[in-house]
Amino acid sequence: MALDSGTLTVTVEAAYDLKDPEWVGRQDPYCVIRVGGQTFRTRTAVDGGRNPVWNETFRFSLPDATDTDVVDLVLKDDQLVEHDATLGAASIPLAKARQAGRDRARAPVISPQHHRHHGTVSLALLWEPGSCQQLQPDDDDDAMGPRQLAKEGGREEDEEEAEQQEAQLGKEQQRHHHHHHGGGTPRERVDVVEFVAQRPVA
């Protein structure tokens, strides 16, 4: 079922009783969170072992066309030498969060190899309908964030103000030369206008 537009805030709290494949020391788990086509990951809980704690919050901007009704998670062990080992996966439905505006959930972590239950992961969800906004920068160089759009929107007013200042300075320059020299040369007046036009627009 397609989600209405809105913002989903996901807080990844902790995991409990995870499988620990480490023979020496404790594993360093982290969590990858996916909603629709957007993906985030937590920091690595160094020496988190079987009960890592993250308490990290992520915000997902969900437009009308987003066709998803779950939060998908993959828990992994951060390994420096080898590829990161997958500890398990979990999915949490969004139905309750959408209806009530919030949800606290603890989902089973399922092993990808044997499809067995290896611990749980806890999340807090907050759903804000109708508040969809681009919260993460787009990889596309042409994409604009909210601050860039605001800057673009005020650029026309800045240019209009600059033109008015140029015209005023030009008139004052003409009066100045006319008073002291019986009229200034066109080149002197144009130089002043060009200098003002090249000033940076805030």
UniProtKB/TrEMBL annotation:
CDD domains in the record: C2
Coiled coil: none
Lineage: superkingdom: Eukaryota
Residues in C2 domain copies: 1-107
Acidic residues bias locations: 155-164
Gene3D superfamilies xref list: C2 domain
Region (Disordered): 132-202
PANTHER family in alphabetical order: CONSERVED SERINE PROLINE-RICH PROTEIN (AFU_ORTHOLOGUE AFUA_2G01790) (PTHR47052), INGRESSION PROTEIN 1 (PTHR47052:SF3)
Name used for this protein in its record: C2 domain-containing protein
Organism: Chlamydomonas schloesseri
